[in-house]
Structure formats: C-alpha cells, structure tokens
Amino acid sequence: MQSAADRGDGLHPAARALIRLGIAAMICMLYRRGPTPPSFEELVVNTFLRPASLPFLIVGVGAGGLFAPFAFSIGTVSIPMPADRPKVDTITAIVTSGRAVQDNPGPMPLWAVLVVAITGLGPATAHLGLAIVTVPVIGHATWHACRDLVPDPAPAELGHAPTAAVPPEPAGAPSAGEPRAR
User: How would you classify residue 126: left for phi > 0, otherwise alpha for psi between -120 and 50, otherwise beta?
Assistant: First the structure.
C-alpha cells in the first residue's frame, strides 16, 4: 500500500500555501518602508489605522480574493478524497474536485460562504472554537460532501477483487419485501 507521501497527497495544499505566501511577501515588499521589519504594534498601526495603507489592503484582499475560488475549487473534495479512496492520485482528486464544483453551481458558492463565515468565527473564541469545533465539523461535512458528490469507484479502483455478478431475478419473481409464495 502506498503512503500519502508516495502518492503526493500532501503536496498540493503545501504548494498552494507557498504560492500564496510568495505573493503576500511580494505585496508586503512593495508597500513596506524601511530596512528592518516593523514591530507588531507598528505593523497593526501601519496596516490598519493609517489612510496610506488603504492601497496595500485593497491589493492584498484583491489578491486573496482571486486565489479563494481557485483554492476552493481544487480543494473541495480533493482533500477528503484520499480517506475513502487511497489509490486516487493528487491530480485525479484535483480534477474531480473541480468537476464537482462545476457541476453544482448552486450549492457550492453557498458552501464556500458557510466555510468562510464559520471559520471567521474562530478569532471570536481565541481560536479555541476553531480547533475544537469548527475544523472537525467542517472536515466531517466536507467528507460527507465528497461521498455524496463523487460516485463510488469500481471495485478494481479500490484494490478489491471484482465480485461475482448476481443473476437477475426471473420474470414474475416477487420483489424485495414481498412474501414469496410457497
């Protein structure tokens, strides 16, 4: 059996994080002044409380807003998918996730808004609620979404031997739940 590292399942979230981090660092470098990094107090004041920081906030939020739909689309079912289907590779999981989002244009934006809103409550509880309640609940719901949106694979995809086909019932046979005549 392959490990997660052999399949590369942990690669795409890390790659996304590195790309976002690189773009955030470039944005900060464009707007930061001075040879040394600011202290935490200076960072808060210079970022949120000065009118001169408004372009920085607009560009930063805009860049994040461009990445959010893409990250949501490729991560919706690709993250929980290896739990059910250990032989599914990362690229297949990402493509499947994109198709699931594309095929469900009504519920998926609602799901994205709910995830953002529920996760946004994390700071209100000093991130305790995020760790104890939010992440497990969203993770469990995402796993159920994956199970509902992605059809069950063929037995060969799961690594099981194919089962013998059940012969069809003869015509006129009672259906399930009906008593059989003796």
Answer: left
